[in-house]
User: Which sequence fits this backbone?
């Protein structure tokens, strides 16, 4: 068993993510100005698993992209790993996975996993050792030299996760990574992700539109509402850390699912009352 | 997994045969109809020769056809390589500077629409009469625009997820070019070469109609097809077709070897 620990020299910040009064306005000043996010306060502790859920247009993906410094906020303050989001990105402090695996079709599975390390300037032997370790972590050791098209959707997503974790980041940002998978594969991948997190101690911010998925995975479920995008409620899941297939049938699991569902329904009712049609 | 791959391999030969047979049959039917038509209506050989007569002439004059094909083939090849290198290189350079590519793109389309072969007349006046340079430049120009437009497109059209990933890795523009844009543009490049290769042969051939040395296929075809030995003229045409086909086959083979990930995607 290889020991998976954060990179030496990485400083332990008090918060993995700390957003205070964070806001994002698209096209400010123009007629099609959109208040994507308003006044977001959210603190994610190291090792925590946080799910973001809400109807489309609530800005959950936008929030994740702010954390990743893929876009810049228009208001408020934001630190990732105790530094600016920009610096955190330059230091590759986080790994990222999307709904599309985004595998590079001209690279084998192991060379896909090694790409972020290549860009960090690691030498070949070190990269190879790490990709071998990551393949073991996602249980795809036999597929190192396969090309992406030879893998199923679920396997491709596992490679994408291995790649996101290749540099041993302390933070994993995931945008509906299992959204394109069938239900069975999806549940398998969720269990897999929890196993990986338990082993690596990685902090996860996970965007999803599936209520059971959000509850099964997270320590806390952040519920968001649209127009303007904001946080309306945060549900503590309190299911403990040892979750398995039986968890999905536990009464407490259903209670939390119900709690999240009702919170989301409240958003819909409020939107209906204001005469806004929600797609 | 390996089972699936094996199955693909074993059926590949059968797929190849089933893909090759229909066009071959169609070609043979066409030749047979041609032969029959000439025989039945007793068409005179100085109007349209019989396929068998063309074949006979090709065999009898194989050294002549070979020499002329070589001259035209080399012109086409030199022009193809120069145009491809220039088109690829300039597309990469202009990709770094958006304004330049926005200037060149419409220009490329406009110039491509000009019946550009006429430039050969000008080029011929610029170089010695026994020079092939004018023709090669002509081929280069045509190939250049085809390759430039396609590669520029390939460098721009990237998968959004891959681009976001590269940003999350804090990759420099140069790294993104090398690791994502260039591999992504390669299939586009080979599509362009597949189009440009037969065109290169045709342009090399037609260029010879505008003066200069009379040793290539174009000169021979225009010389013999106007004369009474129509069979020899058609034999030269066959030579030209073979050169064009070789160019196309060469480009397809190159694509198969260099961008293997493309094979799979296409067969899906």
Assistant:
């Amino acid at each position: 068993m290889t020991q998976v620990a954060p990179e030496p020299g990485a400083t332990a910040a008090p918060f993995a993510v700390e957003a205070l009064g964070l806001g994002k306005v698209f096209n400010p000043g123009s007629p099609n100005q959109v208040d994507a996010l308003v006044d977001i306060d959210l603190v994610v502790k190291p090792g925590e698993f946080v799910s973001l859920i809400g109807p489309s247009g609530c800005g959950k993906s936008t929030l994740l992209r702010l954390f990743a410094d893929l876009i810049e906020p228009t208001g408020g303050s934001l630190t990732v790993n105790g530094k600016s989001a920009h610096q955190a990105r330059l230091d590759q402090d986080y790994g990222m996975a999307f709904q599309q695996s985004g595998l590079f079709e001209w690279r084998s599975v192991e060379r896909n996993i090694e790409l972020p390390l290549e860009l960090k300037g690691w030498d070949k032997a070190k990269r190879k050792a790490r990709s071998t370790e990551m393949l073991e972590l996602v249980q795809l050791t036999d597929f190192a030299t396969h090309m992406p098209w030879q893998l199923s959707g679920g396997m491709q997503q596992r490679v994408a996760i291995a790649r996101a974790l290749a540099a041993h980041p302390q933070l994993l940002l995931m945008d509906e990574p299992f959204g394109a998978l069938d239900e069975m594969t999806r549940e398998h991948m969720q269990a897999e992700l929890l196993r990986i997190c338990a082993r690596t101690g990685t902090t996860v911010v996970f965007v999803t539109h599936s209520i059971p998925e959000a509850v099964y995975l997270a320590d806390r479920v952040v519920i968001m509402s649209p127009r303007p995008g904001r946080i309306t409620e945060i549900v503590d899941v309190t299911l403990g850390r040892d979750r398995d297939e039986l968890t999905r049938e536990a009464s407490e699991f259903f209670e939390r699912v119900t709690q999240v569902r009702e919170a989301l329904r409240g958003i819909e009712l409020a939107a209906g009352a204001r005469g806004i049609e929600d797609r | 997994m390996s089972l699936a791959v094996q199955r693909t391999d074993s059926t590949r030969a059968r797929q190849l045969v089933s893909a090759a047979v229909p066009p071959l049959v169609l070609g043979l039917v066409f030749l047979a109809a041609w032969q029959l038509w000439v025989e039945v209506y007793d068409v005179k050989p100085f109007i349209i020769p019989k396929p068998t007569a063309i074949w006979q002439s090709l065999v009898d004059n194989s050294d002549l056809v070979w020499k002329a094909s070589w001259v035209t083939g080399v012109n086409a090849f030199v022009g193809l390589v120069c145009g491809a290198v220039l088109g690829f290189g300039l597309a990469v350079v202009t990709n770094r500077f958006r304004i330049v590519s926005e200037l060149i793109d419409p220009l490329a389309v406009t110039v491509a629409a000009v019946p550009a072969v006429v430039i050969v007349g000008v080029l011929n006046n610029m170089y010695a009469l026994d020079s092939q340079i004018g023709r090669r430049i002509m081929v280069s120009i045509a190939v250049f625009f085809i390759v430039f437009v396609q590669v520029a497109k390939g460098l721009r059209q990237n998968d959004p997820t891959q681009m976001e990933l590269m940003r999350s890795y804090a990759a420099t523009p140069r790294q993104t070019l090398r690791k994502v844009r260039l591999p992504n543009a390669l299939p586009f490049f080979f599509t362009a070469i597949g189009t440009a290769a037969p065109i290169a042969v045709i342009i090399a051939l037609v260029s010879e109609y505008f003066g200069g040395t009379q040793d290539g296929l174009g000169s021979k075809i225009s010389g013999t097809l106007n004369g009474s030995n129509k069979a020899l003229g058609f034999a030269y045409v066959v030579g030209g077709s073979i050169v064009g086909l070789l160019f196309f086959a060469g480009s397809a083979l190159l694509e198969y070897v260099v961008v293997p990930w493309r094979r799979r995607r296409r067969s899906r």
Residues 251-273 of chain A form the longest helix (23 residues).
